[in-house]
Design goal:
The protein is mostly helical. The chain is built from five helices and two strands. A two-stranded antiparallel ribbon has the order 1-2.
């Protein structure tokens, strides 16, 4: 009798635990385009909370920042004054941070060239963001432009090695 009494709650427990599980066919693949701004490929809630056209894949930060830095650089080339150079330095700092974040996101280590370029640019501009810079000296803007473009190239090469 005791055996039957234990068997019945045991079967009830097994039946309760074997309940509904979400079907894998309803879940998007990792990095797939879904309808949820808060979703990942394994987020089953993405199917039930639509916001059309939301990409759940990894989005790198630097590609969004680079055009603004290049536009700011062009402004510095046209009018190399303290105000433009200070604004450029702030944008450059954001771009460097975004590039470092991208490299960390994909697990890449700096070979030394990236850090050397950012250090050189910081020296050229009198330090990092946060204070006014001095008026640019003769020949400083072309050298700075060369280093900025080289930094973008180094970042693209490093990121390109991941995408292949």
């Amino acid at each position: 009798m005791l055996r039957r009494q234990m068997l019945l709650p045991g079967l009830a427990l097994v039946a309760a635990c074997a309940g509904d599980t979400p079907a894998t066919r309803d879940q998007p693949a990792a990095g797939a385009r879904t309808d949820s701004p808060y979703s990942a490929g394994s987020d089953s809630g993405a199917v039930r909370q639509p916001v059309a056209g939301t990409n759940t894949g990894v989005e790198f930060e630097a590609p969004r920042v680079v055009p603004g830095v290049l536009a700011s650089l062009e402004q510095v080339k046209r009018q190399p004054d303290q105000q433009n150079l200070t604004a450029f330095r702030g944008g450059l700092g954001r771009m460097e941070d975004a590039m470092r974040s991208d490299l960390a996101r994909v697990g890449l280590a700096d070979t030394g060239e990236f850090q050397a370029l950012t250090d050189s640019m910081a020296r050229d501009l009198g330090g990092g963001a946060g204070s006014l810079v001095d008026e640019p000296k003769a020949g400083e803007v072309p050298r700075l432009e060369m280093r900025v473009r080289r930094l973008i190239q180094v970042h693209e090469q490093m990121m390109g090695s991941v995408r292949k």
